[in-house]
């Protein structure tokens, strides 16, 4: 990624259908930009990748297609009037900037356009003795007829696929084409293979196809064939010769096919790879004797759509930290970190001569006796099995599955000398660029933040899953919406969320209700669980969060009908339009205020009313943002009606009639309150926490907003005390127990060392990690001014005195540029340094400041609030500012 970090449709080198947005940053430039241009050109030649993947070459611009000047401060272009992009092409985006010193900066980034599929057929293998459990192989040799200018290979699958050229995997994408609402959209990918065909000789193309999400077992019922009864592959190689002519090699009956060495592949169970299977060496053995003609399948091609977000890739490799024999005699690897991905095994380093039956069984934690704990996997097996492994097989690893694990039990039918260098854990997730960082002098909080990030990495595997290890791994809407803000701080995940939101709109029910998981594989099994408050509200909350972080209105335009349908559903789902859905709800999931229940003590109608009001207000703001004034007025009327109903139903004086922590939190976050009511509810919340020995008892619904409800309403010290609480229940309890990710339950491992019930005990469940949003906004202090989006109007307001910390630093790479804040408190003497992006403006708020202690003259726009003891300083972006002052 270059100095300007150019993004096209919020991605690096994407495959696109419509060019929607080009963005870049000027953080690293030494001076202010005074002029610039943006140019788009058609490109010939091969990709300029530098990752060592197949398809490396030199780009050659052959035809400019669009050009425009840039006003100073512009870093996003989203209007491309008159631009018509040709299909099956590679384009370059070139940004040229001139700074105030006269120096010119120029960088380019690539993107690809899509294809049509009339010339290609879905194909499968009907010669399958394993009845569809294992992989299928496909092969064809391609011979260019003339000198090649460019060659693009488009591919997709009903299942999961990998594609190879001359025995080498093309690209580094994994789990392609990803998981979508397959009946509405199946993604396809593109690979620039120009250099492979420019040699002039024949090139053998091979593909592997496995069940994946399309055909494999899904949900705790391990329901097979949810989307179809047969997996198939489709591909199209588009070759453009130097004379301008074109040739296409597409999937059809001329491709050869056979079963492959992965004789069993399931997402939950793992893979069995047979080194003695007839085609085990197909990548090195070019013969295809005995292979059959591929069978053409009649299946819908209209659902094929270009890749919507970043693909899954290996983003890090983790080595073995120790090898030990557990009390039950099992040889166990400890990677030191609960992660998601796969284990690569160097068989030459591990195995003795001859043939060995080898298996790897993955687990997250150890049980109280010190053995690997498999109970929480439920029906999932999480295994790599090699029944006939030899040292000459090279490296072994899974291809079409992923596991959640820290520990791996190694079993073999022969003695092994375990060399830790023989194993490495490859971390796999959607390859989103990292954007957010936090650190402080409290190592426990630093570990909590790391756990939040690792939890996101482990659960953002193409869809935002609840957990990555057991027989579930589903895109729960409630988990997604509570974590969205933290997720957008941590990673550039806008494209990831937009992909998921497109599936939400596709799977939305006819009455506007929203399934509990997206893609929807639950409705056929448990239709009564749809449209729960806080879960279904993801239809409105998540696109609004994406808009707030990016400033890109197109996400609201794309999701507007879906958002409006959810509000309309809630209007019809109760006795009046103001109550919200009165049907099934998950409640304040896994709250601790009702022993023995997962649903929490807060009444479900109360939750439904609060969220109905919250999302209605978001819809009002959305309609106003898009210029839909009539809609905005209608939503304002609805919101006022909900307010009146809430006041009549849930108040006795200034106090709420529902006395749970979550009830107070939601009222403070979501409802219109008088000053007296707000003060009384905040006081009640504070007392509920303090009288509970400064512990929370909230679940998925109340926890994300708990600290902000306290700190924004006069009780920041209580919020900090909750955050830094180490006893159960608390965020730091799991850290003290050795957690390296966020747990599903506050006490997944109880204080006496025993484990929560096997039925629901994930140790990588990111929802409670939503506290990361508070770390960014209140400890680092990075936020936006009210009503703003895209981080052009920034507020920096850390809770320095209330935090009790000595130093905090953090940053967020926003769409406007990098925002960084660092502060230190030495016995009341504070030093703060803030970096604000060029073109942005910030208000810096110094709470608890002693009047007259600031080492900076106040400008005409600056103020000191004597009553609150706070400086309000106005700072224009483009440079860092350092402030020294004293706490009062």
From TrEMBL:
<dbReference type="GO" id="GO:0016787">
    <property type="term" value="F:hydrolase activity"/>
</dbReference>
<dbReference type="InterPro" id="IPR008928">
    <property type="entry name" value="6-hairpin_glycosidase_sf"/>
</dbReference>
<keyword id="KW-0378">Hydrolase</keyword>
<dbReference type="Pfam" id="PF08531">
    <property type="entry name" value="Bac_rhamnosid_N"/>
</dbReference>
<dbReference type="InterPro" id="IPR035398">
    <property type="entry name" value="Bac_rhamnosid_C"/>
</dbReference>
<feature type="domain" description="Alpha-L-rhamnosidase C-terminal">
    <location>
        <begin position="782"/>
        <end position="850"/>
    </location>
</feature>
<dbReference type="InterPro" id="IPR008902">
    <property type="entry name" value="Rhamnosid_concanavalin"/>
</dbReference>
<feature type="domain" description="Alpha-L-rhamnosidase concanavalin-like">
    <location>
        <begin position="327"/>
        <end position="429"/>
    </location>
</feature>
<dbReference type="InterPro" id="IPR035396">
    <property type="entry name" value="Bac_rhamnosid6H"/>
</dbReference>
<feature type="domain" description="Alpha-L-rhamnosidase six-hairpin glycosidase">
    <location>
        <begin position="434"/>
        <end position="779"/>
    </location>
</feature>
<dbReference type="InterPro" id="IPR013737">
    <property type="entry name" value="Bac_rhamnosid_N"/>
</dbReference>
<feature type="domain" description="Bacterial alpha-L-rhamnosidase N-terminal">
    <location>
        <begin position="146"/>
        <end position="316"/>
    </location>
</feature>
<dbReference type="InterPro" id="IPR012341">
    <property type="entry name" value="6hp_glycosidase-like_sf"/>
</dbReference>
<dbReference type="InterPro" id="IPR016007">
    <property type="entry name" value="Alpha_rhamnosid"/>
</dbReference>
<dbReference type="Pfam" id="PF17389">
    <property type="entry name" value="Bac_rhamnosid6H"/>
</dbReference>
<protein>
    <recommendedName>
        <fullName>alpha-L-rhamnosidase</fullName>
        <ecNumber>3.2.1.40</ecNumber>
    </recommendedName>
</protein>
<dbReference type="Pfam" id="PF17390">
    <property type="entry name" value="Bac_rhamnosid_C"/>
</dbReference>
<dbReference type="Pfam" id="PF05592">
    <property type="entry name" value="Bac_rhamnosid"/>
</dbReference>
């Amino acid at each position: 990624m270059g100095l300007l970090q150019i993004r096209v449709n919020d991605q690096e080198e994407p495959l696109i259908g419509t060019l929607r947005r080009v963005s870049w940053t000027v953080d690293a430039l030494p001076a202010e930009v005074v002029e610039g241009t943006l140019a788009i050109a058609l490109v010939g030649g091969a990709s300029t990748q530098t990752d060592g993947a197949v398809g490396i070459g030199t780009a050659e611009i052959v035809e400019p297609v669009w050009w425009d000047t840039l006003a100073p401060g512009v870093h996003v272009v989203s209007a491309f009037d008159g631009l018509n992009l040709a299909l099956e092409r590679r384009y370059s985006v070139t940004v040229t900037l001139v700074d105030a010193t006269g120096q010119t900066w120029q960088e380019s980034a690539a993107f690809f356009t899509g294809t049509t599929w009339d010339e290609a057929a879905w194909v499968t293998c009907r010669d399958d003795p394993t009845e569809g459990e294992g992989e299928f192989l496909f092969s064809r040799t391609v011979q260019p007829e003339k000198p090649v200018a460019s060659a693009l290979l488009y591919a997709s699958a009903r299942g999961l696929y990998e594609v190879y050229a001359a025995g080498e995997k093309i690209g580094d994408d994994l789990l392609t084409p990803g998981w979508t609402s397959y009946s509405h959209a199946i993604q396809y990918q593109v690979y620039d293979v120009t250099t492979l065909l420019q040699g002039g000789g024949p090139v053998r193309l091979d593909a592997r196809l496995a069940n994946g999400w399309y055909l494999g077992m899904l949900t705790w019922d391990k329901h097979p064939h949810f989307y179809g009864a047969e997996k198939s592959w489709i591909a199209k190689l588009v070759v453009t010769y130097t004379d301008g002519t074109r040739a296409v090699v597409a999937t059809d009956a001329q491709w050869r096919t056979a079963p492959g060495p992965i004789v069993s592949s399931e997402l939950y169970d793992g893979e069995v790879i047979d080194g003695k299977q007839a085609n085990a060496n197909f990548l090195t053995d070019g013969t295809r004797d005995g292979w059959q003609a591929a069978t053409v399948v009649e299946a819908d091609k209209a659902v094929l759509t270009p890749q919507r977000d970043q693909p899954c890739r290996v983003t890090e490799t983790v080595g073995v930290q120790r090898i030990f024999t557990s009390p039950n005699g099992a040889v166990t690897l400890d990677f030191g970190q609960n992660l998601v991905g796969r284990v690569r095994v160097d068989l030459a380093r591990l195995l003795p001569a001859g043939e060995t039956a080898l298996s790897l069984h993955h687990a997250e934690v150890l049980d109280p006796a010190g053995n690997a704990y498999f109970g929480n996997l439920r029906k999932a097996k999480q295994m790599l099995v090699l029944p006939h492994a030899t040292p000459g097989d090279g490296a072994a690893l899974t291809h079409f599955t992923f596991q959640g694990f820290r520990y791996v039990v190694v079993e073999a039918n022969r003695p092994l000398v375990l060399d830790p260098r023989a194993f490495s854990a490859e971390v796999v997730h959607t390859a989103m660029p990292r954007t957010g960082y936090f650190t402080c002098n409290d190592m426990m909080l630093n570990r909590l933040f790391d756990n939040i990030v690792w939890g996101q990495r482990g659960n953002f595997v193409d869809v935002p899953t609840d957990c990555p290890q057991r027989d579930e791994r589903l895109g729960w809407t409630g988990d997604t919406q509570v974590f969205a803000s933290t997720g957008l701080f941590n990673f550039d995940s806008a494209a990831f969320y937009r992909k998921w939101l497109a599936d939400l709109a596709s799977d939305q029910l006819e009455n506007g209700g929203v399934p509990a998981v997206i893609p929807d594989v639950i409705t056929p099994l448990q239709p009564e669980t749809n449209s729960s408050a806080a879960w279904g509200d993801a239809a409105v909350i998540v696109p609004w969060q994406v808009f707030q972080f990016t400033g890109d209105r197109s996400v609201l335009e794309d999701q507007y009908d879906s958002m409006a349908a959810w509000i309309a559903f809630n209007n019809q789902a109760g006795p009046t339009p103001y109550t919200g859905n009165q049907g099934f709800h998950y409640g304040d999931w896994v709250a601790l205020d009702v022993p023995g229940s997962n649903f929490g003590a807060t009444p479900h109608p109360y939750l439904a009313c609060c969220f109905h009001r919250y999302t209605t207000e978001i819809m009002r703001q959305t309609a106003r943002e898009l210029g839909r004034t009539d809609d905005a007025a209608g939503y304002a009327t609805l919101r006022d009606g909900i307010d009146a109903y809430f006041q009549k139903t849930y108040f006795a004086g200034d106090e709420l009639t529902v006395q749970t922590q979550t009830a107070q939190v939601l009222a403070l976050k979501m409802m219109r309150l008088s000053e007296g009511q707000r003060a009384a509810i905040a006081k009640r919340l504070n007392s509920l926490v303090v009288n509970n020995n400064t512990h929370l008892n909230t679940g998925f619904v109340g926890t994300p907003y708990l600290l902000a409800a306290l700190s924004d309403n006069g009780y920041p010290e209580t919020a900090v005390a909750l955050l830094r609480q180490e006893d159960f229940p608390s965020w730091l309890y799991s850290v003290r127990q050795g957690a390296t990710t966020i747990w599903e339950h506050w006490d997944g491992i109880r204080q006496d060392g025993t484990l929560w019930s096997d039925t629901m005990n994930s140790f990588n469940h990111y929802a409670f990690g939503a506290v990361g949003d508070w770390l960014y906004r209140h400890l680092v202090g990075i936020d936006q001014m009210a009503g703003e989006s895209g981080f052009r109007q920034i507020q920096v307001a850390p809770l320095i005195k209330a935090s009790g910390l000595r130093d905090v630093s953090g940053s967020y790479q926003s769409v406007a540029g990098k925002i960084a804040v660092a502060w230190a408190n030495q016995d009341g003497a504070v030093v703060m340094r803030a970096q604000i992006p060029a073109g942005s403006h910030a208000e810096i708020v110094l709470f608890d400041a002693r009047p007259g202690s600031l080492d900076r003259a106040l400008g005409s726009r600056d103020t000191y609030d004597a009553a609150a003891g706070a400086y309000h300083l106005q700072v224009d972006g483009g440079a860092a500012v350092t402030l020294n002052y004293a706490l009062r």
